[in-house]
Structures are given as structure tokens and as C-alpha cells.
Amino acid sequence: MAAEVPLRNSLLLRLLLTSLVISLLSIGATAWLTVRGTSLAIEQERGQVLADDAAIQDTLTAFAASHRSWEGVERVVRELADRTGRGIVLTTRTRRPITASDRERAGDLPVNASAVIDPLHVTAHPGQGIDPEQQISRIDPRAVGPYRLPADERAELRRLARAEVECLAGSLGRPAYIAEGFSGRPEVRLSRTDTEAAPLCLSKELAAPTRTEAAALAELERLVRRCAERHHVPAPGSVRIDVRLRPEYQGSEAEQTIVDECVEEGRREQLTGHVAPAALLFVTDSSREAVRVFDLSPSGTLRIVGTTALVLAVTLALTTVIAVRLVRPLRALADAARAPDGRHLRIPVTTKDETGSLAAALNDLSERRERTEEQRRAMVSDIAHELRTPLTNIRGWLDAAQDGIAEPDSVLFASLQEEAHLLQHIIDDLQVLAAADAGTLHLSPREVRLDDLIGQSAAAHRAGAKAKNVELIVHAAGDLSVHADPVRLRQVMGNLLSNAIRHTPPGGRVVLDAHRVPGGVELRVTDTGSGIPPEDLPRVFDRFWRGDTSRSRKTGGSGLGLSIVRQLVRAHGGEVLVTSHPGVETAFTVRLPHETSPTGRP
Prior knowledge:
Elements: H1 11-66, H2 73-84, E1 87-91, E2 97-100, H3 103-106, E3 115-117, H4 151-171, E4 176-180, E5 186-190, H5 204-207, H6 211-230, E6 240-241, E7 247-248, H7 253-271, E8 279-284, H8 298-337, H9 354-402, H10 410-438, E9 446-449, H11 450-467, E10 471-476, E11 481-484, H12 486-502, E12 509-517, E13 520-527, H13 553-556, H14 561-571, E14 575-581, E15 585-593
Parallel strand pairs: 10-12
Antiparallel strand pairs: 1-2, 1-8, 3-8, 4-5, 6-7, 9-11, 12-13, 13-15, 14-15
């Protein structure tokens, strides 16, 4: 019976999936063109909107950080509206209008504001013109207030910064540059971030606060100390703040956290009068024309043509691959079918579908045919050999009697009768094996008492055992019974006993034992003969096999007895096993079920 191909390996399923893939490619390509065009337009519009919103918020935050009020912001709002095409409305916290790019939009505002413009409560994000390193806190770094340096202090600090840059570049070979902060204070930075500034070039004057900064820092320190006292921080008078607005305080981690919070609170209080008050920003939809999704521009046409060509190429490639995978094993099958007679060609199994299953089945068939052919040749050779010996003996005695060399007396007739009996025995054994192979070996099963059957078999072989000085021992319970053919079962025990006695040397022992096992009975014949080597055990039941090929038929038998035992036991639905310890003992075990089919088939 052919093995059923799993659904996932089915050839029909693969063909259906191929058609489905081609259809999906066509549909997907069309959908991709539509989605791609729409997505590009949406992404472009959305990206532009986000960029415009960030630019509007950043520009107005910068204005609020550098002005004490919103006076003069009208011009900035109009420029932003003209550049972005967005409607911009700026109101106070109470939604009182400050300015609007379009007066008609000022009276119709959304429920939620787009953003809050408050330079004292911001967070730097991509799109803003703020260096995250300069953002000490949520206060916009462009809100410098009293820390803005006048021109003369800027010029002096710039001179000191240039001297430090020259020292680093000229004396130490470390290139550096000057970066100016929002307050106007210059800062020297190294071009390579993996190096550190040399202590010899550091200028104490450059790191020291100017008069303007000192006054602002002193005011900030007073505010921070008052805040620290309110939070019960010990020794608030020891709080110092450097020019980078970083507090210097020696205390616990919790106290340091309070001091940091007080610095931010003090800075907001200090900058309140120097920045514009917080305002609400409303940004309305753009008045631009919508971007066209599809057009027949050269780029759009090229995209359509390229996608169509890609779908056709993929379809052709899939069809070619499937066709090649289908045709290759079919050609191999055809070549194997055209092979000359007697040539057993093996077909490579490269797939797991129906074609692969067919190739595997043909390989199995070819292998069975080859094995059967080898067995047939071997069996014909063995049969010819087995029949040749008794026939040669009979012909030789008859020729001798005809030529007057041998007298036709009772001795001659007894010898001829013995050879004829041997020839008949071989023919009968071959008939049993042929019937078993053809499935025509019929049994006549009935309820049989094993103790009676074992006794009969032992009695028939006791004389032969005594002649070889071999002890024959029988162990069988009196209540053992089995449903079997008594003639065939006695033939099984007879073959096993004769085989055991034949291979047991004088003074040895053969034991026939029968006992009940779950589901049936078990017969065991054990002898103390020479034993069977482990490498020969798998061939014990082969036809015409002898463990010692040099032995004659009279000492080694015809080589069919154990083959017949196996066939008869199988016909009863049982099994026969052999175990051997060379030089110690050999045991043949027959297990029979309680019931046997009337046709003799297990």
C-alpha cells in the first residue's frame, strides 16, 4: 500500500499555492502602487506639517526667551504663517488673543491648544535649535536674562578663549575651537572628543565669572539658600553656583537633590521678569493645495512600468522553477522505466510530494525485485546442490549394480532406500516452504494438550539422543493446552529437537521446556552444544544455511529445518527466537498465542 503524502507536501497543493502566489503578486503590486503613492503623499504632507509645527513652536519660544513681553511678535507670526501656510493664533492662558495670522481664525479656536509657549518650562526635542548639552533644565537655555554679557565682557572673554585655543593647538598639538553660548560667554571645545584639555592651557580668568555674571549668581545663590532653608537643608550658606549654573554643595544625596530643585526654582524666579509670559499656541490646518497622489509624470510612469515588469519576471521565475521541479523527477522515472532488463536503477528521491512518493515506491519495487532475483538464484543453486547428492548416490549404486561391480543384495537396497527417503524429505520440506511463501499453507487447528504432544516428540527422538550419549530432559506442566495444528506443531518440536541433538556432543544435555506466559504458551529447546557465533545468529533461519559450511549433510542437515520452524510458527501467529552463548548453551524459544486462524495466517 502506497504511503499517503502529507497535505503540506501535496503536488496539487503546491500548484494551487503557485497560482495563489501569482494572483497575490498581481493584486499586491496594484495595491502597492496605490498605497505607495498615497503613503508618499501623506508622509510628505505629515512630515512637512510636523516640521512646520516644530519650527513655529521653536521660533515663538526663542522670541519669548529673549523678550520681556509679546510686543512685536505680530511680524514674526505673519512671517511664519507666510512660510508654512498654516494659520497661527497666540493667546494668553485665559485665551485672550495676543496676535493671529488671520483675524478671522482668532475667534474660532480648537478645544485644545497645539502647544504652550513658556521658555521657563520647555523640553528640547529634534527640530529645535537647542543643543541638548546646553539645556541644564527645563528652562530654555536661550532665556539668559541677567546673565547676558555686555560687549566689553564678551570681548575680554573671547580674547582669553583665543589664547587658550592657541595654547592647545600650538604647544600641545590639540586642535580646538570656540563655541559661544546664548549669554555670550565663549567656551573652548576640543575638536577630538577622545582627548582632554591640558591643565597647562586652562585659564582661570576664563572660568571665573564676570561682573555681570557675579551679580546674577549672587542673586541666584540668595534665592537658592532661602529655598534650602525652607526645606530644612543643613548649612544652606555653603551652597555655591558656578558660571555654568551648577550648584556646589557637600551633603547627602537627598540634600543634593533638594539643592538641585532649588536652583531650578530660583532660576525661574530670577528669569520671570526677563521673559515673555506663558502663552497658548493654536496652529490650524494648512491652506495649501492637496498634493496629487497619481500623475503620469516620467517618474510615476517608470514606477508603474517597473512594477509590472517585476511581477512578470517573478511570475515567469516561479513558473519555471515549478516546471523544472516537476519535469526533472518525471524524466528520472522515465529513464528508470526504459532501463535494460536486469538492471536495477535507483531513482534519486528529491521531493516529498506525490512524485517523490512514486520514486520511492519504484525504488522499493526495484529493490524487492533485485532481492527476489538473488534469492531465486541462490535457492535454485541450493536446491540443485541438495538434490544432486542423493541422486548421484542412487545413480552411482545403480550403475555399479548394472556393471556387476555391486551385488543387488539387501545392503544395496537399504542404501538406495535411505537415499530415496532423504530425497523425499528434502522435497517435502521444499513443498512446505513453497506453500508458506505462496500463502497456501493451511492448518487444522484444534485444542491440543502440550504435555501429550511433547511426550510424543521426546519419545521419537530419545533413541537418537541415547545413541549419541546425549541426555534428553522434558519439563512440561500437565494443564498446558493450545489451539494449534498438532501435526505441524509436532513437526516444529521435532525439527528443533533433531537440530539440538545433532549439534550437542556426547555427554551433553538437551532440555525441552513448556510453560504458560501472558497471552499464550512458550516452548523452549536448550542444548549444551558448541553454540552459534553472534555474527551468525541473524542467518540461523535462512534456507540452506549451515553454521559450518564444511560439514556434510549427515552431520549438518539439509539447512531447511529451522526455516520450516519459522514458517510454521508464523502460520500459527507466533514467533521464534534464538539466543546462544558459544561453548555454554543455545536456546530456541517458540511463543504461541491461545488462538490460531484457520487459514494458518497470523
